[in-house]
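STRUCTURE:
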C-alpha cells in the first residue's frame, strides 16, 4: 500500500544525492512543486531524466542540483531557451553539466522497456540522424529475422520517478486523465515513486480514458494542491502562460535567478 506523506517528508525519504530521478509530465501535470522541494532540500549530483525538460529542470540545474541531464528536447515552451541550462553547458555554472541526448521516440521506448522489465528497446527512429555518433547509449542492432539494421537504446530505470496527478484515494490508488505522456511508464520503471496529487478523495470515480495506478506500484502519495503550476491540471486549473514568459528574464540573469531562489522557492515552503 502506498503511504500518504507530506511532500517534504516524501522527498527527504525518497530522493538522495547522486540519484537518477525522472519528473515527467508532457505540458500537463508537470510535478513542479516536487522539483522545488528537491531544490529546498539541497539535493546534489542528480541525474535528471525527462523527455521534455522545461523550466522546472532549468531551475533544478541553476540551483546546482544536477550533474547530468538525459533528455530529448529542452526549452521554455512557447518562449525560448532554458538559460540556466545553457549557462551550465557553456560556462559550467553553477556546476558542469553532462548531457545525454535522445529523440522523443527513443526516450519513450526506453521508459517502456524499463516498465516492462526489458534491458533495452529497439526502434527505427535514429536512422538518418547524427545522434548515434553523439550519444553512447544509441547502438545499431540487426534484426535476427529480417537482417534489417535497427537501433537499440537501454531501458530507463530511474531511482525515483515523480509525477503529478489529479486524484488519489486514501489507500494510495492514483487516477489521472487528460494528456498523460509517459507518467505511467515512469512509475512502473522506477525503483521508487512519488505521486503528488491535487486532492485525496475517499473513492476514485471512474472516468473515460483515465489512467489508474494501483497502490502497489506507488511508493508514496503527497497531496499538493496546485502542485503542477505553472503547467495545468485538467479539471482543476489552466496553464499559467504569463509565468513561462516571466521566467525568461529571470533565467537569463544569475543575480535575478539567485534572488528567485531566495524568495520564491522559500516562500512556497511557508505557503505550503
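SEQUENCE:
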Amino acid at each position: 500500500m502506498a503511504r500518504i506523506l507530506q511532500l517534504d517528508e516524501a522527498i527527504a525519504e525518497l530522493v538522495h544525492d547522486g540519484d537518477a530521478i525522472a519528473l515527467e509530465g508532457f505540458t500537463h501535470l508537470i510535478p513542479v512543486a516536487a522539483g522545488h522541494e528537491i531544490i529546498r532540500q539541497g539535493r546534489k549530483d542528480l541525474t535528471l531524466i525527462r523527455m521534455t525538460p522545461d523550466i522546472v529542470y532549468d531551475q533544478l540545474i541553476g540551483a546546482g542540483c544536477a550533474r547530468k541531464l538525459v533528455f530529448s528536447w529542452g526549452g521554455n515552451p512557447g518562449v525560448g531557451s532554458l538559460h540556466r541550462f545553457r549557462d551550465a553547458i557553456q560556462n559550467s555554472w553553477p556546476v558542469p553539466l553532462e548531457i545525454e541526448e535522445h529523440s522523443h521516440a527513443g526516450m519513450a521506448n526506453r521508459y517502456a522497456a524499463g516498465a516492462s522489465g526489458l534491458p533495452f528497446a529497439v526502434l527505427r527512429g535514429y536512422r538518418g540522424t547524427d545522434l548515434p555518433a553523439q550519444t553512447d547509449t544509441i547502438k545499431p542492432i540487426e534484426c535476427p529475422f529480417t537482417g534489417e539494421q535497427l537501433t537499440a537504446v537501454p531501458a530507463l530505470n530511474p531511482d525515483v520517478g515523480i509525477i503529478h496527478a489529479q486524484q488519489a484515494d486514501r489507500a494510495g490508488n492514483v487516477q489521472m486523465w487528460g494528456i498523460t505522456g509517459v507518467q505511467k511508464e515512469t512509475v512502473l520503471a522506477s525503483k521508487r515513486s512519488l505521486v503528488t496529487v491535487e486532492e485525496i478523495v475517499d473513492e476514485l470515480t471512474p472516468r473515460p480514458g483515465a489512467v489508474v495506478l494501483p497502490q502497489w506500484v506507488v511508493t508514496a502519495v503527497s497531496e499538493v494542491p496546485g502542485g503542477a503550476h505553472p503547467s495545468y491540471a485538467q479539471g482543476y486549473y489552466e496553464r499559467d502562460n504569463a509565468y513561462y514568459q516571466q521566467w525568461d528574464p529571470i533565467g537569463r540573469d544569475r543575480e535575478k535567478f539567485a534572488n528567485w531562489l531566495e524568495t520564491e522557492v522559500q516562500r512556497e515552503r511557508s505557503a505550503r
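REMARK: The radius of gyration is 18 Å.
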